[in-house]
Write a structure and sequence with these properties.
Helix content: 10-25%
Distance between the termini: 207 Å
Protein name: Right handed beta helix domain-containing protein
Organism: Brevundimonas balnearis
Keywords: Signal
Number of helices: 5
Structural class: mainly beta
Largest sheet: 24 strands, parallel
Signal peptide: 1-17
InterPro entries: Autotransporter_pectin_lyase_C (IPR012332), Pectin_lyase_fold/virulence (IPR011050)
Number of domains: 2
Length: 496
Amino acid sequence: MTHPTLRRLLKSMKALAAPAAVLGAVGALALADDGAQAQVAAKIESQTRPNFGLLLQPPVQARPRGHRRWSYGTHRGHGYAPPPPRPTLEEVVLVDCGGNPGTGAVEAAVHRVRPGGTLIIRARGGPCVGWLNVDKPMTILGDGQGFDPRDWNRNPPPTLQAPDGLPCLTIAPGVRVEIRDVVFASPNAGDAACVVNYGGQAILNRVGFRHAGDEAAIYSDGGLVDLRNAVIEADTVTAAIVGDGATLTAYETTILRALSGVDLTPGPGEPSLIQNVTMRGTEAPNNFGPRAIGLIVRAQRDYGRVEVTNTLISDYAEGVAVEGASVLVRDTRITRVDKGAVLYNGELTLDRSRVRADTVGVAAAAGRAVVTNNVFARVRQVYYEEARAVVDAEENVVYSRALCRAQFRPRYRDRYEPYFGAGGPGWRCAYDSYPQDWWRQEDGYFGYGYEDDGGYYLDGYDRYQQGYGWYDRDGRYIRDDRYHGDRRWSGGGWRR
């Protein structure tokens, strides 16, 4: 191949190489676009595909984060203040109100006590004024020398006073609260009771109440009220203690000034026990307004039971009233009442008790009354029994000048001899004087002077028993010493 020919060949190859290079560059660009698209698709797939290994075995350490120069908790704008820390519950909380009512210190102290803890109320500068709303079990103590019921006449200062129109203490359902050495005061209670128990357990020992309002000093809607060594002075038109479906245990308790003593509707559980209790009313008449009753026992669908022992009930229109429950009254003194015990319905057992009433000892409208081994004084009628009632009476003694007085029958012309009746069904008369030891345990306990309800005295009866004289039909003694013994009935008529 000659040199010109080679030159022409090289020129032709250069001409063909340029388009080939262009085509190669285009092909390379096309291949590069396909690879980029494949990498993007693979990246998206790797991000969207779930990592099952990570789900089955999560990491044990958190991913470290970089430090922030500020946090959301400390930068919330101007004027922001963090919330106060929650109070720590304490085993024993002492509150000293210092005579500053309305500060809320005693209410706040209740919230600080842990369940089962103790709240101590110190009232050196005056009573703590507040409403204790207790929703957890606790013990409430009064600070100081303690409360002695025997010092009630010395007017001990109150420990806790209720705000006007509000209660002193409320107890939530199922909560047990023990209270000792506390004097409650609710001088302007209005329609509020001082202690309100909503189905909890109120255990009160060595406590006092001064209550003035339209409701009871203690009201319990179910639950238990246990009173020991307590004094309740309630100036109210209702009962001092009202229990609705509740169980009441009262021991060594004194109830004063209330129109009625205890108004109880016993619950279906354990029987309510009233022992060594003194109830004294206001001698309110029974011809208008609510009835003045020492102890009134009502009934719900569940037939409850109340047992009363060694109790003194005085100055009421009715001593005990039973309305559809079972009540046992034993070794109890009922005095200065119009009616001793009234059975409207249900069951009443009166045993080994003393009743001093102006009209009736036991009145039964319906139900069954068992009256045994009792002493009745001053009554005009021992029992009153209607058609739907049954009264079983045995071995009762009556001191009454209205019932146990002499009657006179004719013996000779205008001469009469006295005789004394044997009594009535289930009772007999006692013609000696009423024992003064009994009087000191009844009316004499309140300072009343001795009055002999028995001791029927017949003028000239001593001389008559010696065989001299007789009586006229009006019971006047006619003295005549001329005839002795039976001769006075056979001769020497009464010369007019």
